[in-house]
Design brief:
Shape: elongated
Structural class: mainly beta
Radius of gyration: 24 Å
Order of helices and strands: EEEEEEHHEEEHEEEEEEEHEE
Number of helices: 4
Number of strands: 18
Distance between the termini: 19 Å
Strand content: over 45%
Strand order of the largest sheet: 3-4-8-9-12-13-14-15-18
Helix content: under 10%
Mean pLDDT: 84
């Protein structure tokens, strides 16, 4: 079982072009938790060779908040002061994708082993965002609207290859490379989630502290691509064109493996 905690914190400008003033600001923030589950199968057909299959379930997160708007122009502010909008509560439903991973491990020599992965992630479900606006009050139970936004995400594929070399009975070093396809095409990419294809490079170190306990440390560098964006937003939002610069991530992990 896994417990997932999520926080949605949105801050965006509002174009006051109709009033000729500076931009306003909209804020939305909430947290939520949900429980998921994982299952795995590991087969060792012969000594030194293993094949594994793992499944991670989807997790559903729902965020609710009364969005606050500051600095709105006179025209927009007049609309926001109506009872319907003053009482409005916005809700966003997100689905973290389920995933399946097939992996293999084979020892070429007693000291050298190679590993491969092939995986699939259901990112198309993440792209279906449920949105609702509830303006109901004690005297008004009619103004409730809900819809679904399609971010046009697509399922992704993952592949990786790695190797581990035992330096001595106490220490071993590992390295690997992984590729993840892009969950969205260039024409549908949003600046809110500028996701692109991913190249990952990793290096790890393992220390065999005892026969049943292994300690590990790892570093991973991820090149997330340039993620070009080309959006036509109309009068209020405006057009947005460009690409990400230095879109990279650094990961550091510590681990302990304890065999009962």
């Amino acid at each position: 079982m896994s417990l997932v905690y999520g926080e949605l914190d949105v801050q965006t400008n509002i174009n006051n072009v109709q009033d000729g003033g500076p931009d306003g600001r909209l804020k939305f923030k909430d947290t939520d938790t949900d429980v998921g589950w994982n299952a795995g199968l590991l087969i060792e057909p012969w000594t030194g060779t293993r094949v594994g299959l793992t499944y991670i379930s989807q997790v559903d997160l729902k965020y609710k908040d009364h969005a606050s708007i500051n600095g709105a122009g006179p025209v927009l502010n007049a609309v926001l002061q109506t009872p319907a909008f003053r009482n409005a509560q916005s809700t966003f439903d997100f689905t973290l994708p389920r995933q399946v991973m097939l992996s293999g491990y084979h020892e070429l020599t007693p000291d050298l082993a190679i590993m491969v992965d092939l995986g699939w992630q259901n990112w198309s479900s993440f792209g279906e965002i449920g949105v609702s606006l509830d303006t109901r009050s004690a005297t008004d139970t009619t103004l409730s609207r809900s819809t679904s936004l399609d971010a046009h995400f697509q399922d992704t594929w993952h592949t990786a290859i790695g190797a581990r070399y035992r330096l001595n009975p106490l220490w071993s070093v590992s390295t690997g490379f992984a590729y993840d396809s892009s969950p969205v095409q260039n024409s549908n990419r949003s600046i809110v989630l500028p996701l692109d294809r991913q190249y990952r490079y990793a290096l790890g170190l393992q220390y065999y502290w005892r026969k049943d306990i292994t300690l590990g440390a790892a570093y991973e560098y991820m090149d997330a691509g340039s993620a070009p964006v080309n959006q036509t937003g109309g009068l209020l939002k405006g057009d947005l064109k460009g690409r990400m610069q230095d879109d990279v991530f650094h990961f550091v992990a510590l681990s302990m493996n304890w065999k009962f």
